[in-house]
Amino acid sequence: MNIIFVCTGNTCRSPMAEALFKSIAETEGLDVSVRSAGVFASPNGKASPHAVEALFEKRIALNHVSSPLTEEHMEAADLVLAMTHQHKQVIVSQFERYRDKVFTLKEYVTGSRGDIIDPFGGTIEIYKETRDELEALLQQLAEQLKNDGK
């Protein structure tokens, strides 16, 4: 299964989700390919230093270069997980024919609406809160995928 996580600039939430889920998937033995992109990302940007630090605390390396979301990403993905409802709306408006594989992370995992808080410009504590929220949801995602046999 090919999963892509999407946020705004692809420097905080989606790269953290990508790195966290790669780690979780490896631990759980899931056969997945994981990427991230941003709806308004500049190509080749660096991950936020606080995002790197928040993951380093969990012994997860974040070697990341930002990428704008492209048609190729959408074509290759089996599942597109946006960090917010607004991201989902932007993705669906830009890539209408892929709408059936676009969800917010919370929507896909919990069945409820809700956004992942944006830590951009915040303190390291805010980044750690976002990391922990992502980690809990991504652990649930891994369980769902295991139960679905994917």
Keywords:
150 residues, Rossmann fold, four-stranded parallel sheet, 4 strands, 13% strand, Tyr_phospatase_low_mol_wt, LMW_PTPase, Low molecular weight protein tyrosine phosphatase, hydrolase, Ptyr_pPase
Describe the protein's topology.
Layout: E1 2-7, H1 13-28, E2 33-38, H2 49-56, H3 71-76, E3 79-82, H4 85-94, E4 102-104, H5 105-110, H6 124-148
Parallel strand pairs: 1-2, 1-3, 3-4
Family: Belongs to the low molecular weight phosphotyrosine protein phosphatase family.
Domain Phosphotyrosine protein phosphatase I: 1-144
Protein name: Low molecular weight protein tyrosine phosphatase
Summarize the structure in words:
With 150 residues, this protein is an alpha/beta fold. It has one domain (2-145): Rossmann fold (3-Layer(aba) Sandwich). The chain is built from 6 helices and 4 strands; from the N terminus they run βαβααβαβαα. It has helices at residues 13-28, 49-56, 71-76, 85-94, 105-110, 124-148, and strands at 2-7, 33-38, 79-82, 102-104. A 4-stranded parallel beta sheet has the order 2-1-3-4, sandwiched between helices. Helix 1 links the parallel strand 1 and strand 2 (33-38). Helix 1 packs across helix 6 and helix 2 (49-56) crosses helix 6. The longest helix is centred in the last third of the chain and has 25 residues, at 124-148. The chain starts with a strand and ends with a helix. The mean pLDDT is 97. InterPro entries: LMW_PTPase (IPR050438), Ptyr_pPase (IPR023485), Ptyr_pPase_sf (IPR036196), Tyr_phospatase_low_mol_wt (IPR017867). Residues 1-144 form the Phosphotyrosine protein phosphatase I domain.
